[in-house]
Design a protein that fits this description.
This protein is α+β, with helices and mostly antiparallel strands. It contains 7 helices and 17 strands. Helix 3 (about 160-165) packs across helix 6.
Length: about 325
């Protein structure tokens, strides 16, 4: 995989919505630093540049508080989107006023779910293995949490940008957490034969997955859609990887669906046939998008997407026969 952008990460949001009102959040120094795309699992923790802040945003879904955090960002080359030429993807980025010389910017959003008794984290970011990342520990610190205070981690799939934080430094970084991963992904990403036949840009995901299996004795492979805690359930989104999952939280007539890599910026949801170079089964991924996007639009579902611009909250809406991403009105509501 090519070396990705090394621009400094400096962005922040200091307001979130909580229960219909405005909740001021504390921002604190945080950062994300560069690392080679093929960094080893044992890479040292990133060093924080001085001029940056940690973006945070909170919403309430019934009894749940959901905090959007981020590990940083990376710019994905325009050539990484099979189904369109690089020129077409860049043209779409220009039309949306988000074009960058280095490609399409992917943010790595993580979501902390709290119900008053448990803290459940959705994914842990690439932790310095890709682009300008490694900021999640600072983001957690900004809300007064250390990683050993996380009760459970749900890994949506075993690509390095979703599980790197679990094993950065070659250690168990969430020592008190149960770990939930779809069994199909565990089987795939810990298979030496599959690793031997995989391209170089996926090797780091295989190495990190093996480290996760070794370092996390509380790993619980899960099968199919199920509830992992009251009001928190797994959604099958197979295609991007063999065991790609989402998470739905629901309470008091409200719900939020966290869809991980179902959506990519610039190209989705406008075109379901546009994929991403990391996808294991492009036909299955497209079929899943075809089903999910239309259903989400008809239901007006509130969505959290890992790589959409922070905080990654929005809806898929049908607009004159085309699907588009509508950023959620998450602040200053009454």
């Amino acid at each position: 995989m090519p070396d990705l952008s090394r621009r400094a990460f400096a962005s922040g949001l200091s307001l979130g919505i909580l229960g219909g009102g405005v909740l001021p959040l504390v921002t604190s120094p945080g950062s994300a630093t560069a690392a080679p795309a093929a960094a080893q699992t044992s890479a040292p923790a990133p060093t924080a540049p001085a001029a940056s802040v940690t973006p945070l945003a909170q919403i309430r879904i019934g009894r749940f508080t959901v905090t959007a955090l981020t590990d940083g960002y990376a710019d994905m080359p325009y050539t990484f989107f099979p189904g369109r030429t690089a020129a077409q993807v860049e043209q779409a980025a220009v039309a949306q006023f988000v074009a960058r010389p280095s490609g399409v910017r992917f943010v790595f959003n993580q979501y902390l779910i709290e119900d008053g008794t448990r803290r459940i984290l959705l994914d842990t970011g690439p932790a310095g293995s890709i682009g300008q990342t490694g900021a999640l520990p600072q983001a957690l610190a900004a809300i007064g949490l250390r990683r050993d205070k996380i009760d459970a981690v749900i890994v949506t799939h075993m690509h390095e940008d979703h599980l790197g934080g679990l094993v950065v430094g070659g250690q168990n970084n969430y020592p008190n957490a149960e770990l939930f991963i779809d069994r199909r992904d565990v089987t795939h990403w810990t298979d030496p034969a599959r690793q031997a036949g995989a391209p170089e840009y996926l090797q780091n995901s295989f190495r990190m997955s093996a480290a996760v299996a070794k370092l996390y004795p509380r790993l619980q492979p899960i099968d199919g859609e199920r509830e992992v805690a009251p009001g928190i359930s797994i959604v099958d989104l197979t295609g991007h990887t063999p065991g790609h999952i989402g998470v739905r939280i629901a309470d008091a007539g409200q719900s939020l669906i966290m869809v991980s890599d179902m959506l990519f910026p610039v190209v989705h949801p406008q075109a379901t046939d546009v994929g991403f170079v990391f996808e294991q089964d492009r036909a299955a991924a497209q079929a899943m998008r075809d089903r999910f996007f239309s259903r989400a639009a008809s239901e007006g579902a509130l969505i959290a997407a890992t790589h959409m611009p922070f905080p990654g909250l929005g809806r898929i809406v049908a607009d004159r026969g085309q699907m588009r991403w509508q950023v959620a009105d998450w602040a200053w509501q009454s």
